[in-house]
């Protein structure tokens, strides 16, 4: 009985050690993929380092998506991968960025330097691209539609978890990834340019408004200096005339830009009589300098 019990305990320890080793092997994605390939092919050994797999590996390394279904296991392979990534990733990113700039410049010229239409167009394409890719992967590969969209999104945004891999031709998959990454680059370029342009536009107008307000305050202070209540009234009248005259100038510019006929010309400044001609000086002070209308303040 003791021999039987010892033998059963040895079998249990052997099985536990085997299961532990199998679980440790499955932690390595390379070994896990090899085990999955061996299991799904009726225990037939299949080399995972095929030429299409190598092309996909090199492409997803420099883009970089990095699915992780195929990876180097030897020390020499890891060292060569580091060198290849250091050289290839910057070259690939620069190439895709230049391609995106070329296409964005062409689209901008096509839309006559308008940024709103290209931005909306590429945002729409970026939203439709994963859906179209999901439909294709769902139709030609063994993926559910939800998983296919998930795979498309993680691929074109270079996330690449590697938990899903459609059984599709590697050439089509590489082209899908390359065009998707270029589309993401162009869209981000247009959106960033539009946002920066809006921020600069708001900043310029805030700066102009601050400058105009400062000048108007200085003008009011110079008008009100040593004039009391009457000077205050004159200063307010001058500011109203200045604002009204600025609006007239703006309307005149808009009419000239639209090139519409039938509009009267704006009157000359010399022919306009300001509201404060009579209030620019007091009744007590009749000096020649104070008798001048406030019009000279704007010359």
Helix content: over 70%
For the record, what CATH class of the largest domain applies? Mainly Alpha
Radius of gyration: 38 Å
Can you tell me the CATH topology of the largest domain?
Helix Hairpins
Mean pLDDT: 72
Largest sheet: none
The end-to-end distance, rounded to whole angstroms, is 120 Å
Helices, by number, come to: 9
Please state roughly what percent of the residues sit in beta strands, choosing from under 5%, 5-15%, 15-25%, 25-35%, 35-45% or over 45%: under 5%
Number of domains: 3
The class by helix and strand makeup works out as mainly alpha
Provide the low-confidence segments as ranges: 260-266, 274-299
Number of strands: 0
Shape: elongated
- The ordered H/E elements are HHHHHHHHH
CATH architecture of the largest domain: Orthogonal Bundle
Describe the structure.
Helix content is 71%, strand content 0%. Mean pLDDT is 72; it is low at 260-266 and 274-299. The protein is elongated and about 115 Å long. The protein is built from nine helices and no strands. Helix 3 (51-62) packs parallel to helix 7 and helix 5 packs across helix 6.
């Amino acid at each position: 009985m003791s021999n039987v019990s010892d033998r059963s305990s040895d079998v249990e320890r052997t099985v536990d050690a085997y299961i532990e080793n199998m679980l440790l092997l499955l932690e390595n994605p390379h070994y896990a993929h090899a085990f999955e390939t061996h299991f799904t092919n009726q225990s037939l050994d299949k080399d995972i380092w095929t030429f299409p797999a190598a092309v996909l590996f090199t492409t997803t390394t420099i883009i970089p998506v990095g699915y992780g279904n195929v990876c180097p296991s030897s020390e020499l392979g890891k060292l060569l991968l580091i060198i290849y990534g250091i050289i290839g990733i910057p070259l690939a990113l620069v190439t895709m960025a230049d391609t995106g700039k070329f296409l964005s410049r062409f689209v901008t010229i096509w839309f006559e330097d308008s940024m709103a239409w290209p931005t909306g167009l590429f945002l729409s394409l970026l939203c439709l691209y994963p859906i179209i890719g999901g439909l294709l992967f769902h139709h030609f590969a063994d993926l559910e539609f939800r998983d296919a969209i998930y795979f498309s999104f993680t691929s074109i945004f270079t996330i690449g978890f590697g938990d899903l891999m459609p059984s599709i031709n590697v050439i089509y998959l590489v082209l899908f990834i390359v065009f998707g990454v270029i589309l993401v680059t162009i869209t981000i370029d247009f959106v960033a340019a539009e946002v920066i342009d809006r921020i600069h536009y708001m900043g310029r107008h805030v700066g102009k408004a601050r400058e105009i307000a400062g000048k108007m305050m200085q003008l009011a202070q110079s008008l009100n200096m040593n004039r009391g209540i009457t000077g205050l009234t004159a200063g307010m009248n001058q500011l109203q005339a200045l604002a009204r005259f600025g609006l007239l100038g703006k309307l005149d510019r808009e009419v000239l830009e639209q090139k519409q006929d039938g509009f009267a010309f704006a009157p000359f400044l010399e022919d306009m009589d300001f509201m404060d001609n009579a209030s620019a000086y007091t009744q007590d002070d009749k000096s020649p300098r104070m008798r001048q209308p406030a019009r000279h303040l704007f010359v």
